[in-house]
Structure formats: C-alpha cells, structure tokens
Amino acid sequence: ALSSARWLGRGNKEAGDGAAVDAMRNSFSTLHVDGIVVIGEGEKDHAPMLYNGEKVGMGDGPQLDVAVDPVEGTSLLAYGRPNAISTVAVAPRGSMFNPGPSYYMQKLVVAREARDVIDLDAPVDVNLHNVARALGKNVQDLVVFVLDKPRHKKLIEDIRSTGARIQLHTDGDVAGALMAVDPRSEVDVMMGTGGTPEGVLAACAIKGAGGAMLTRLDPQSEAEKAAIQEAGIDLAQILDADTLVQGDDVFFAATGISGGTFLRGVQFSGQGAVTHSMIIRSKTGTMRYIESHHNWNKLMQISSIKYD
C-alpha cells in the first residue's frame, strides 16, 4: 500500500500495480514460510506478476497457500478514486480453491446475522426481503453493493424495484464483499458477478468475519465457458466460503491505498506515513483494525523497500 500509493491519481495503473507487487514480493522474501501463490496476478489483468504457482517466502516454515491482490482496483488507484486496497491471505497448503481458467463468478455476500437466509437461486426480491428481516430492517433501509457494469443492468433494476438502496462501484469486489460483512460499514449485501480469484480472496476474510458467501462460476465469454468445461469444473455447483477455502486456520489482511468508505488511504507526511488496515483470523473470528504510523528515518535503515 505504501509503495503503490505514490502512484495515486497519476494515470498509470501498471506502474502502481508493479510497485505494490515488488514490495509484496520483497516482503514475502523475509518470511519463514514455504508459500505457493494460488490466487495471484494473472492473465485477465495482464499484470506484472505475483503469478499463480510462484513460490514465495524463504522456503522453510509452514507450507501455505497464498492469495494476493497487491492492488485491488488498479483503475481506482490510477485515477485517484476511492476504495483501492492491498490484500493478502494465507491458509495451509491445499486449502484454497484453484479457479483454473475461470475469471468470473456470481456472488452473494451478507453479514453474520443473515447468513442462513440467502439462496443464490432465489429471486432478488426474496433474498433482499429475507436479509432485511434477519437484520431487523425495512428493505428500503438496505444498502446493496453492485459493480457498475453492463452485465448488471437487470440486477440493478430488480434491486431498485424492491425499494432497496444501491452503491454502484466501478471496481473492487473484494472491498465490496468486505463491506458487506464489516459491522462498521453501511453496506448490507453484495450482489453480482465479479472476479473468481477475488472471490477466493474475499472468502478468506468472510470465514473469519462470520458472514456468508454463495458463489457460482459465471463465464462471460464462450471461450471462458469452454475452458472451464474442458478443465472438468462443474459450472452448476454452488461454492460457499468453506468450499473456496477449507479449514479454519486462515489469515487475511487488507490495507487502504486510496481511502474511501471502507479503509482510509495512505496519508503521507514529510517524516513518514499513516496506514489503516483490517486483519482477520478465522480460527478466533477476531477482526482487528490497525492504524500504523511509519517513521521514514527508522524504517529506511532496515527496510529493503524504499517508500520515499
């Protein structure tokens, strides 16, 4: 987050993403873990790598599956828009669902109180009325996070017909899923189709936050659909958070880059910077919100990453 935030609003999403990737890879190189990237930067984003299958860490210590999105919302960062974040998650080796050739999935995410009332195959109005009752609200009081994409035209119409309110976001469906389970957020539900890798990453957080996530692969092209079928992956299967990442020994972290309604962004001063992070441990269900004050004079003496 510190490295990429220097590129806020400068119109170069590749440079901002590259700075975050380099810093994250460098940080992993200091950790006593034997990690393999299961969810990484890939073909869909034409990104500068932490690629799927890359080994990270010093090679000793626990064997881990690793999910990363060094900048979730590269366009948000490039154009200085809210809610770009840097995220990472780890779990024991073999825990994480490998999306293979799947780029997109349908998602429905709610907080703990509504986890038992959602159905991915139910009509939008049924899901929203059930969620409203579970939360003790009128449906008109709900706020639904939706990506502002042409594929969601009917979804948006269906949500509006119930009277529920909508937050439309151009990017950032990991952040959207987190907002839906974060008790500090005004978002109650996240709906729509977003990235499959991002879905696995969000599931790591949702397991710890105690919310619910229902998903199903939703290819957006015939080529993607054919590749998924060729890989032997069932397009009809509903995947929940426990399917996307198994077990309870899962850790997730996110730090704000550009700030916004979810996590505040990096704030620079002449002497250092302030960052705001969310840390989740699934085994205990603990959610930590950390404000960190970084001192350049001391940090630069020991860090291999230069932030100034």
Give a quick rundown of the structure.
With 308 residues, the chain is an alpha+beta fold.
Report on this structure.
- The protein has 308 residues and is an alpha+beta fold.
- Helices cover 28% and strands 28% of the residues.
- The protein contains nine helices and 14 strands.
- The strands form two sheets. Strands 1, 2, 3, 4, 11, 12, 13 and 14 form an eight-stranded mixed sheet that branches. The protein has a six-stranded mixed sheet with strand order 7-6-8-5-9-10, sandwiched between helices.
- It is globular.
- The model has no long low-confidence stretch (mean pLDDT 94).
What layout of secondary structure does this protein have?
Elements lengths: L12 H16 L5 E6 L15 E2 L6 E10 L1 H5 L6 E8 L11 E7 L13 H12 L7 E5 L5 H10 L2 E5 L3 H9 L7 E7 H14 L2 E6 L4 H9 L8 E2 H4 L6 E6 L10 E2 L3 E10 L4 E10 H7 L6
Parallel strand pairs: 1-3, 6-7, 6-8
Antiparallel strand pairs: 1-2, 3-4, 4-11, 5-8, 5-9, 9-10, 11-13, 12-13, 13-14
